[in-house]
Amino acid sequence: GTITSANGGIDGGTWSVTVSSIDAEAKNNITIGTGLTIDNSESTDKVVSFISRLGSFDSEMIELTGGALEIAAANDVRINEFTAINYERIAISALSDSAGYVTYDHEADATSGGMITGGTWSIKNTLLNDTFVTAYADIEIDTSISLDHVKLDLASTTGGFTAQAVNVTNGSDLNVRTATDIAIEHLSGKNSRIYMTSMHNYGRSVNSRTDATGGGRLVASSVELISCDTEVITFGDIVISEKLEASEDEDDPDPDPSLCMLMSVAGGFTLVDGAAETFLHVTDSEFAVYVATDIAADHVIVTDSNATFTALADAYGHSVVSIDSAVGGGDFNAKT
After folding, report:
1. 119: β partners
2. Can you name the residues that pair with 291 across neighbouring β-strands?
3. Is pLDDT of 91 > 80?
C-alpha cells in the first residue's frame, strides 16, 4: 500500500504489517508512537519504506522479520527498541541536501541531516545481507547493539558513535566510520570481523588515513576479542580504561587466532585507570599497536602470540610502523 502526506506528517500508534509492502512518505515528521511490527517471513521480496522529506522519523519499537526495511529522513531518526531477524536488507539514514532527504547511498551529496539514536538494538540473520545505518551527525545507542551473523555498515558523516555495549558474534562483519570519537563502554567480538575508523577530511568522515586531516579517538572501558579479526584506526588517542583481551575461541576444536591491529595517526595508546590495575592479555593471537606518541599500560601479558608495539612518528607527527621512517615518537610505559 501507499501512504502519502504531501504537506504534513504521519502519526500512528501501533502498526502491524504482514506479507505486505508499504510506501509511506510525508513532508514532515513520521511518528509511530507504540511500535511497528513487520512480518514478511513468507514473502521476503516485500519492502516497507518510510520517507520524511524534510522532517524526522520516530518509533518506540520496530520488530522486523523477513523482507526489507528502508527509513530515510532529512533530520533525526530514533528507534528505541529495534529487533530484526532473517531480513533481506535494512537501510536507515538521516541525511539531507538543500532539497530534502537523501538516502544512504547518496551520502556524498548530503550537506546536512540529523542524528540516529536508539536504546536496545538486536539484529540477527542467516545470510550476510546488507545493513546500512548512516547519519550526518552522531549515532547514539543508549543500551546495546548486538549483531549475530550480520553485515553492518554504520557511518556518521560529520559526527561520532556512542554505545554502552556492542556485541559482534557468529561471523558478523561490522564496519564503523566516523569523523569524531567512537565511545563504546564495552566492546566484544567473537568469530567475526570489526573495522572501525574515526578520521575526517576537513570535517567529513573517511576510512583511509592517507585522506585524513583530523579525527577523533576510540574510548572504551573494556574490549574482549575472541577469534576476531579487528582493525581500528583513529586520528586521536586510543583510550581503554579497564581491560583489553585478545584470544582464540577455546570452544572451537580448530580455532582461528584473534588478529588485532590498533593504530592512532597522531595520538597514543593508554590502558591505565588511576583507581585500579589494568591488564592487556594477548593469548594465541596476533596483536599490534602503532601510535605516534606514548604507549601506557599497567600490565601487558603476551602468551603464545606475536605482539608489536611501536610509538614512532614521522616529521608530520604521524605514526609510522618502521623506525627507518621515524624522526620522533613516544615512550612505552608499563609496570609488568
Report:
1. none
2. 311
3. yes
CA angle in degrees (0–180, nearest 5) for 138-142-145: 90
Amino acid 336: pLDDT? 78
What is the pairing mode between strands 193-201 and 229-234?
A: parallel
Read off the pTM: 0.96
Q: Which helix (H) or strand (E) holds 54?
A: none
Question: Rounded to whole angstroms, how far apart are CA atoms 270 and 297?
Answer: 6
| Burial class of residue 57, CB neighbours in 10 A (0-12, 13-18, 19+) | buried
Q: Across the strands, what pairs with 292?
A: none
| Cell digits of residue 314 | 614521522
Residues 6+ apart with CB under 8 A from 5: 25, 26, 27, 28
What digits encode the pLDDT tens for the residues 155-185? 999 999 999 999 999 999 999 999 999 999 9
Cβ–Cβ < 8 Å for 121, 82:
yes
Mean pLDDT, the chain, whole residue set: 95
Contact 80, 56 (CB under 8 A): no
